[in-house]
Amino acid sequence: MNINFEGKRALVTGAGKGIGREIAILLAKCGAQVTAVSRTEGDLETLREEINCQILVADLSDASAAQNAARDAGAIDLLVNNAGISVPQTLLETSPDAFDSTMAINVRAPLLISQVIAAGMISRGQGGAIVNVSSQASQVALADHAAYCASKGALDQLTRVMALELGPHQIRVNAVNPTVTLTPMGEMAWGDPAKSAPMLAKIPLGRFALPRDVAHAVAYLLSDNADMIHGALLPIDGGFLAT
Predict the structure, then answer these.
(1) Which of 76, 83, 139, 174 can pair with 13 through a Cys bridge, CB separation 3.0 to 4.6 Å?
(2) Residue 220 is a catalytic residue
(3) Tell me, what's the pLDDT at 19?
(4) Does 189 have pLDDT greater than 80?
(5) For 9-227, CATH number?
């Protein structure tokens, strides 16, 4: 199976590190012209040393900044809403600030960016594809992740509504739902073996995901090979949800 994005323009948020960086690199290798968004300019500069890409520095927790980044990206054919944060706190200790910032980046930013990008896709009349990077935490409760679980559950439902309303314009929308992925954020939340061991024990494949595992699934969903997959929530969890 060949994935070829020659002539396509892709926008990847949260592209400076981890999953987003891996996605940006893979899409570029498949021929896409990539625009990478991150709040950390240094990360984007090192990414640009690896691939030929346009870079945009933006703090997506700010609504205006998220909208402006989407507008500055120009005409986009493939959108990956990957940027996300996790602030591990117990339910009783979850602060208003942590909840609000998590929802702003994990849910509101994908909504605002998708509004701008999808409007452009509709005006050009050539369709497009969007993938939202969600989590298994949208479907299974995780201790110390109240805000994160809530945000990813909301993102899954946003994905379904996007699929419902954008499908008639031939804009496909799907989500991927990884298990713990070994990124800097994943290492921070799950680096303690005492905490990670019970989670690993629930994954039949016996390992956490790597960023490339997620990137491969995202590239497939963006490609014409997946042209009848729409409104799906694809687990990338080594069988966690099957147990």
Answers:
(1) 83
(2) no
(3) 97
(4) no
(5) 3.40.50.720
